[in-house]
Amino acid sequence: MRSPSVELTARSQRLVIFSLIAIGLGFLIVVQLRSQAAVARTLAAQDDTSVALLINDLNRANNQLIQQNAVLAEQQTQLQKALTSGGADSQALSKELTTLREVNGAIAVHGPGLEIRIQGPVMDFELQDALNNLRNAGAEAISLNGYRIIGSTPVVSRGDILMVAGHAVRTPLVMLVIGDAEQLGPAADLSASSLQTRVQVSIQRQDDLAITEVVTPRPVIYAQLGK
Amino acid sequence: MTVLASVSLATFLVAGLAATQFRSQPLPPSNRLARDEALRKSVNQLEDQNRALKARVQTLQADVKAGEDESARRSSAAQEVKAQLDEQKTFAGLTALHGPGLTVLLHDGTDPNSPVDHSLGWTIHYQDLQDIVNVLWASGAEAIAVNGQRIVPSTAFHYAGVNILVNNASRLSGPYTVIAVGDPPALANGVGNPDQLAELKSRNRIYGLGFSWLRSTRLSVPAYDATFLVKYAQPIG
Q1: CB contact at 8 A, A223 and B93
Q2: 8 Å CB contact between B57 and A68
C-alpha cells in the first residue's frame, strides 16, 4: 500500500508523461502536414505545362516500373521453381547475365533502330545532348564510327577533334542506335534540328542494325562493394 | 486516470486543431484553380506510386538475389554464371559502392533581374549535370550518383517543364550533389581543368552560381533503385 503523497507524485509523473506524448504526437502530425505542404508548394509554383509534362513522364516511368516488376517476379518464380524441385536454374541466371551484358555494352547486338549520319564538325556537348536524348527515348545500344557508346563513355572535344572513349572520331559521323524507332525518331529529330543549322544530318530507320563493337570494362581500383 | 485521459485528449485535440487550421485554407472559387489543384494532386499520387513501384522492384531484386545465391550453392554451373553476373551487376550500377572520390556541389546563383539578360544563366540546367558527369567519367570515375540517384547505362537527364528528371522520373532539385568514386586528385584535376566546364565556371563568376568540389577519402553511392529492360537489342551469335 503506497502512501497518498507517493501516489500523488506517481500520478503527477504519469500526467506529465502522457501530456508530453500527446504534445509530441500532435507536433509530429503538424510537422508531417507542413512537410507535405512544402512539397506541394514547390509544385504549386510551377506552371501547368510543367506539371502536365511531369505527369506524362511519371506515367511513362511508372509503366516501365510495372514492366520491370513483372520481369523480376517471373525471374523469381523461375528460380524458386527450380529450387523447390531440388535443382538450380542456371538458365534464369544466364538470361539475366545476357541482359546485363547488353546494357553494359559487353556483347555484340542487333535489332531495329536508326542510322544517323552527321556530315560536319560536332562539339562534345552537342554529341552528349544527342546521346542523352536518345537514351531518354529508350536507346538500348549505340555505336559511333565503330566505337560502342555506353553511359560511362566520355565524350570530349580536344580543339576541333571529337574524342569518344579516348579515340578521335572524324566526320562523317555514323551513329547506329538500337531501340524502338517510333520513340527514337522524335529524339533524333530534336538533336538534328539544332545541328542542322550548320551541319548536314540524315536519319534513316532500319529494321535490323548490327552493333558488333563491345566495351571492355575499365578496372575497378578505388570502388569497393557496400555502402 | 480520468484526469490523465482528459488532459491527453485535450492536448491531442489542440494539436489536431492546429493541424486542421494549417490545412484548411479557403479554396478560391475558380475552376482554373480547382483544375490546377487536381493536376498537382495527380503528380503527388503518381510520385507515391513511383516510390511504391521502386520499393517493390527492390524487394523483388533481393528475392531474386537470394534465389541466385541458393542456386549457386547447389550447382557449380550456376555458381560460375553467378560470379559473372555479380561482376556485370557492379558495372551496371546495381550494387552500392564506396571509396575515395570527389563531391561536386552546385546551386542556383542570383537572378540578375536584368531587362537585357533573359538567359537563365543563373540557374542550374540539366545540361550542367550532364556535363559534370561526363567530365567525371573522362577523369576516371568508377561510380557516380547525383542527389542520391545512381548514374547507370540507361541514365538520361531531361526537362519536364521546369523539372529536371533522371532515372524513371525522379525529380532533382537544388542544391545538387554529385558524388564520384575514384582517384580524388584525378577527378579534381578533371573538374578544375580550365578547358572543361568553361561555361559553368563563367556563370559561376557572373551570377554567383554555386560550383565547388571537395576531395574525400570515403564516399558512397547507392545502387540503382530499379532494373533494366532490353526489348529490341538481341545478342548476336
Answers
A1: no
A2: yes
Cell of B87: 561482376
CATH of the domain at B151: 3.30.70.1880
d(CA A118, CA A195): 9
**Residue B235 covered by a domain:** no
Q: Which domain holds residue B49?
A: 31-90
Residue of B nearest to A99 (CA): B230
* Residue B224 touches chain A, beta carbons under 8 Å: no
The number of folded domains in chain A is 3
CA distance B59 to chain A (A): 10
Q: Which long-range contacts (CB under 8 A, 24 or more apart) does B31-37 make?
A: B35/A48, B36/A44, B36/A48, B36/A51
Domain-embedded: residue B152 = yes
Longest CA span, chain A = 98
Q: Considering the domain boundaries, does residue B119 fall inside one?
A: yes
Same domain, A160 and A197: yes
Express each pLDDT in A96-147 by its tens digit. Answer: 999 999 999 999 999 999 999 999 999 999 999 999 999 999 999 999 999 9
Written as nine digits, the cell of A198 is: 550548320
Give the 3-state secondary structure of residue B191: helix
Give residues 108 to 167 of B whose Cβ lies within 8 Å of A: 127, 130-131, 134-135, 137-138, 140-143, 151-163, 165
Number of other residues whose CB lies within 10 A of the CB of residue A122: 21
Contact, A165 vs A153, CB < 8 A? Answer: yes
Residue B174 CA to residue B182 CA, distance in Å, equals 24
How many CB atoms are located within 10 Å of the residue A81 CB? 13
In a domain, A50, yes or no: no
Residue B52 lies inside a defined structural domain of this protein: yes
Which phi and psi angles does B166 have, rounded to 5°? -150, 155
Greater confidence (B22 vs A203) lies with: A203
φ/ψ of residue A205, rounded to 5: -80, 140
What are the cell numbers at B97? 559502392
- Reported as a single tens digit per residue, the pLDDT across B120-154 is 888 999 999 999 999 999 999 999 999 999 999 99
Residues 6 or more apart whose CB falls under 8 angstroms from that of B79 comprise B72, B73
Residues 44-73 of B with CB under 8 A from A: 44, 46-47, 49-50, 53-54, 56-57, 60-61, 63-64, 67-68, 70-72
Q: B22-63 pLDDT, tens per residue?
A: 444 555 557 778 888 888 899 999 999 999 999 999 999 999
